[in-house]
Amino acid sequence: MSPEIKQLRDKLKGLNLSGMIVSNPVSIRYLTGLDAEGILIIDPKENLFITDSRYIESVNNSLTIDAEIVACDKKDMTKYDYTLIFEDYNEIGFEENYVTYAEYKRYLELFQVNLVETEGLIESQRIVKEPGEIEKIKKACEITDKAFEYIIGHIRKGMTEKEIAFELERQMYLNGADGIAFETIVASGENSSMPHAVPTDRVIEENDIILFDFGAKYQGYNSDCSRTVFVGEILEVQKEVYEFVLSQQEKIIENFREGTNIKTIMRNRETDYSLEHFEILHSFGHGVGLDIHETPSLNSKVDCFLKKNAVVAIEPGVYFPR
Amino acid sequence: MSPEIKQLRDKLKGLNLSGMIVSNPVSIRYLTGLDAEGILIIDPKENLFITDSRYIESVNNSLTIDAEIVACDKKDMTKYDYTLIFEDYNEIGFEENYVTYAEYKRYLELFQVNLVETEGLIESQRIVKEPGEIEKIKKACEITDKAFEYIIGHIRKGMTEKEIAFELERQMYLNGADGIAFETIVASGENSSMPHAVPTDRVIEENDIILFDFGAKYQGYNSDCSRTVFVGEILEVQKEVYEFVLSQQEKIIENFREGTNIKTIMRNRETDYSLEHFEILHSFGHGVGLDIHETPSLNSKVDCFLKKNAVVAIEPGVYFPR
Hints:
Distance between the termini of chain A: 54 Å
Structural class of chain A: alpha+beta
Number of helices of chain A: 10
Oligomer: homodimer
CATH architecture of the largest domain in chain A: Alpha-Beta Complex
Radius of gyration of chain A: 23 Å
Number of strands of chain A: 17
Low-confidence stretches of chain A: none
Strand content of chain A: 15-25%
Largest sheet of chain A: 6 strands, mixed
CATH class of the largest domain in chain A: Alpha Beta
Strand order of the largest sheet of chain A: 4-3-2-1-5-6
Order of helices and strands of chain A: HEHEEHEHEHEHHHEEEEEEHHEEEEE
CATH superfamily of the largest domain in chain A: Creatinase/methionine aminopeptidase superfamily
Largest interface: A-B, 37 and 37 residues
Number of domains of chain A: 2
Helix content of chain A: 25-40%
CATH topology of the largest domain in chain A: Creatine Amidinohydrolase
């Protein structure tokens, strides 16, 4: 059995839960290594993965005896079979942050148990990364860095945002990415004031600011890279803001130590600097792993101590309307 | 106000609901044209879009007075403000197929109303497309067809699945796609038996079957194209299966007429052909629009009459293990 499933089973015991229904494909990948849709049932007797005909062959190909996971095709499951799974048990956990209200009601009917919220149990477990996970994230970051280095040498006036975004993605694939982590943002000029802009046909001009936000996926794991680039001359006021944000980022990284509380780091930051002349300051980051945005969120309301081998993206930003 | 919001308001009245909380970004885009995260509140007094600082500027830029939508930044909303929205009302609809169980509980606390399931109300409304929507889907299909035509002229032995997938996506972008509709599937040889294979470094060889499943996104709307290609010689048994599936597809398309019941089409098909010698037969299709998989599903259990201006992908498939 995977160490991830073992750890989850221990935690379920601690919560007096007899089992858990795991539905989020990211949780399933984390616990089993499987990249397939379905539901993973953790019950006292076994680990059962119920999938469908689109995935059953690849699932059976990947599972070894050591995985201790029984896979089955849902077309072979009767309604009665579902009621047998937790027959002798009652309190079963579920993923309240993933399961829709409609699915919740369907599970109640199907499994005939009490469904208990697990308060982000698997999400919390995923905060601390195993060495193998860190290697994959590192590789995703290398792919991203290399693509960015290439692109800053190739941006020319007259190119469009879309052309730059496409070339950036192409470089990531050439460097070994399996996919992109999220929709690439390349926002220039007035578009750069919008943190979630979509690349347009706007042509790059002299003195533009270009905002990049992009990442690569490598064996399921993500990188997240946010950069601001200036075309040609930099105005004094731009330089001032850029250096302010950079200093914030460096300060945050410096304060990131095992055992420090996230809200303390954020508060230190706020008392160190006057932010009055900035219009909006983004939340300053988030965990990164199998999801591009994971627990923990990094903002002044999060009362949570930093753990060893957690992986986070630190990306403070300042956005002026227009 | 958009015709889509007007229609929704009429339907809510018919269900005796005083309003609705719309959370799915695809529903929000359909109703408002906005491409932003947040929640859209339909209440008897107004249409209110609560978003956050990442989107507020672009939202305010896109909304005209005719939209009759008030946008606000959630940081300006107090807990008390939320309780005022439905102050004089009680039965409010929500999207039970999108809202998670945790969000459902948060909405109950925030809005202090009875939340009522709407049984896919907006999804049903989206089945019938407006002419403008059909134009966008047509454009997405043209982009896809052109890219496929290019790629079949450029596949060579020695190329990998990944290289083909990347070139296919590049062609879609060059033809005007804003993005891809879903992760491109290029599965060759033994990989082609898995409907949801991920492109690998497997090299194309003589006599390979290559399964393609891919699509483009154009102004939010998707295309979905599934094709099977043979490299070099075609075995007699392959040709037989290929022509069987093609005839199925043609037969289904022929029977697709306004007012026909989906399950009837599926049943006609089953009585016309002997399927005994095939291992798996996929569900034969689905609606396509702002989502790549929309209502209606096309399978023998769906008791639903086809409507004029519905858009569906018809993609029957036969998969033999290994």
